[in-house]
Amino acid sequence: MKRFLWVLVVLVLLLAGLVVGGAYVFDDRIRSTVEDRVAVELQRSVPFATRPTVRIEGEPLALHLVTREFPSVNVRAREMPVRAAEAITIPLYDVDFTLAGVRYETDAVHAASLTGGGWLDYADLAAVAGVRIQPTEDGRLALERDVEFLGIAFTGRLVGRAALDRAMQTISLTDTELDLAGVAIPPDATQALVDAILQPIPVALPYGLQLSALGPGEQGLDVVVDATDVTFPTR
Description:
Number of helices: 5
C-alpha cells in the first residue's frame, strides 16, 4: 500500500511538472494568441482608430489565464478618441497605457490602476477653442485670435504657460502676457480681451481616465493620464 501511494505521488508530481513545463514551453504561442484577441476586442470597443498593440505580463501565461488575473498589461495605439467639446471629438495620439492589477472577464477588462499618456495636436485644440495655437521658443504657448475693439480689427496674441485644471479637466494658460500689436487698450478693458481670447478647452477622456499633467511638445501638448478602478468594455 505504501509503495502504491508513493508511486501515485510520483505520478502526480510528474504530471504536474509536465503541465507546468508545457505551460512554459507553449507560453509564447499562448501569449501571442491572447494578446491578439484582446487587441481586436479593444480596437472595436474603445474604439481605437487602428489595432492597438497589447503586451501581457505574467509567466507562465497559462496559469494566469486560469485565474483571469494578470500583474500588468501594456496597451499602445496610434490614436484614441476623446471628447473636447459638445459633440466634438479629437484624437489622443500615441497612446501608451499600462494597466496594473488586471482582471479579464468575458465582457470587460478591469484594472486596479492605469498610468500612461499621449499627446493632443495643437491644430485639434485650436479648432475646438476657435484660436490659433503654437508653441513658443521659451516653452510656452501662444494663442491668437482676431478681435475688434472700438471698431478697430486686430490680432490679439496671448502668451502663457500651459495649465491643467485637474478638477474640471480643462486646458488653459497661466502667467499670461497680452500682445495687441501696438493697439492701445484701456487697462479696465484688458481682462475682457484676455477672457475673449482665452477659453478653457475641456478634454473628457473616456472610462474614467483623467489628465494629471501636461506640457508643450513640438506637435502638440504632451499629456499624462492616470486612473484607478478602470474598466474597458470588450463587447
